[in-house]
């Protein structure tokens, strides 16, 4: 059955791939872009079923009107793919508070505002599906990506909670965490904070150099990722958390094991803080 799908960030990368695959499958796609040229390029993919809307997720007051405009042209939004975002690379100490605020403004606040714009209609219709594109960095961490991974950890927590709240209304929610794909995320789309503290050179310079060299060379195929996401449209109970890519599975598994190792090693100290006269647990 043909659906109306809203995808944020369809100019390049994973968003573009999901949009292409959705159009090829016969769906109607409303895509957000940053420029009029990108809008024209996207509409050219399918003049009948592709609609483009210029939107900057930092312009919070424009998000809901844009969603309403998309619905006026294509009908109620059946599926949201909240994909738009960007990466910020830099050591914690060398990255500014202004960069942190913008990272969360786009990746978290803009994404949440978009979900809020489509959710009431889905709840009222008792049907809908929301995909939030996070990152393997929303489950584990790597040096030099503290602010970016913080934003993705935030999205993972928000999405998990949202899924528990709206399943009763027939709204299905999935946080999709890709590994490294053949996109420009680590190239043109990655903002790099300037370096200035020599103490971090030995740790961070090789990491930055490697990321630059491997930009666009990830193991993941964006078209296959698009197909994987769209395959969940037919699932009555899709996963709340989905990893994409063998590297994501390997690195997230290792990262979660490090956390579990800490829990296990310090279990006695954890348990020592319970009140001696008992009490009530939250669940």
TrEMBL record:
UniProt keyword Nuclease, yes or no: no
Pfam families: adh_short (PF00106)
Record keywords, A-Z: Oxidoreductase
Signal peptide stretch: none
Highest taxon listed in the record's lineage: Bacteria
Coiled-coil ranges (or none): none
SUPFAM superfamilies assigned to the protein according to its UniProt record, in alphabetical order: NAD(P)-binding Rossmann-fold domains
Entry keyword Endoplasmic reticulum: no
InterPro entries according to UniProt: NAD(P)-bd_dom_sf, SDR_fam, SDR_oxidoreductase
Assigned protein family: Belongs to the short-chain dehydrogenases/reductases (SDR) family.
Protein name (record): Oxidoreductase
């Amino acid at each position: 059955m043909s659906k109306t799908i809203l995808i944020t960030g369809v100019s390049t990368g994973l968003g573009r791939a999901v949009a292409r695959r959705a159009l090829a499958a016969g769906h109607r796609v409303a895509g957000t872009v940053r420029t009029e040229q990108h809008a024209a390029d996207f509409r050219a993919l399918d003049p009948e079923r592709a609609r483009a809307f210029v939107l900057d997720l930092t312009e919070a007051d424009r998000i809901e009107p844009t969603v309403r405009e998309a619905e006026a042209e294509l009908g109620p939004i059946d599926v949201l793919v909240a994909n738009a975002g960007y990466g910020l690379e830099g050591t914690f100490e060398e990255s500014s508070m202004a960069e942190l605020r913008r990272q969360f403004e786009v990746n978290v606040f803009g994404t949440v505002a978009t979900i809020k714009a489509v959710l009431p209609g889905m709840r009222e219709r008792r049907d809908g599906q929301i995909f939030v594109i996070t990152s393997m960095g929303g489950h584990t961490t790597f040096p030099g990506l503290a602010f970016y991974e913080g934003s993705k950890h935030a999205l993972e927590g928000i999405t998990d909670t949202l899924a528990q709240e709206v399943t009763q209304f027939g709204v299905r929610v999935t946080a999709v965490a890709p590994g490294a794909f053949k996109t420009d995320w680590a190239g043109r789309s990655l903002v790099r904070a300037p370096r200035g503290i020599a103490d971090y050179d030995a740790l961070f310079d090789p990491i930055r150099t490697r990321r630059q060299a491997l930009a666009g060379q990830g193991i993941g195929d964006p078209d296959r990722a698009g197909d994987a996401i769209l395959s969940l449209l037919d699932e009555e109970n899709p996963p709340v958390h989905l990893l994409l890519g063998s590297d994501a599975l390997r690195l997230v598994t290792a990262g979660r094991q490090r956390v579990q190792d800490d829990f296990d090693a310090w279990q006695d100290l954890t348990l020592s803080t319970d009140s001696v006269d008992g009490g009530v647990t939250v669940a």
